[in-house]
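We treat protein structure as text, and this decision shapes the records that our systems exchange. We quote a single record here, exactly as it is kept in our systems:
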Amino acid sequence: WWVAKDDQTRGQFALGQNIVATADPDEWDDTAHAVSLFNSFLKMPEVPLAGVAANTLVLKFASSWRPEGFDDANTSKFPVGPGDVAINNQTAIVRVSFDGGAPVEVLRYDSKDGGPYFKPDAQNEQITLPLNNPAGATKVVVYFDMVEAANDWWWAIDNVVLDAGATPPLISQHPANVE
């Protein structure tokens, strides 16, 4: 439904198939809501790490990100800063927690052009993040957050994988026939 509703280049997310986790404040804003910013939180189930060596855990996922921010100063719908200046800064965050500890941020994108976390349109991207799992960790929880958005674009994810060990080789071209 997400692409069919109003494509707006959402269809570029070819890596996302069938069921996709989507945080879309543009669609949220099409319905009545309290004066607020859009905040979405996705917490994955706990994953056991028995036998996983330290610093070998990697998070992989398909991502579709389209930023937008600092453009919604409508005080009847969104909070604003002094002088009624728009404060929406659509921000994507990935955090991990080992053994129930405080979550640690491992990725941040935001919509502030020129800022240290600005991420331009990346609507069909494969993300690979080393998670730096500590020695002796027995479980991990991964969080995907999108916060501080107003009538902005989206962040969608699919095909989330936790992998341990060496990064597998990639076949970048068809091998030559040796027969």
About this structure: The helical segments are 2-5, 25-28. The longest strand covers residues 139-149. The radius of gyration is 19 Å. The longest helix spans residues 2-5.
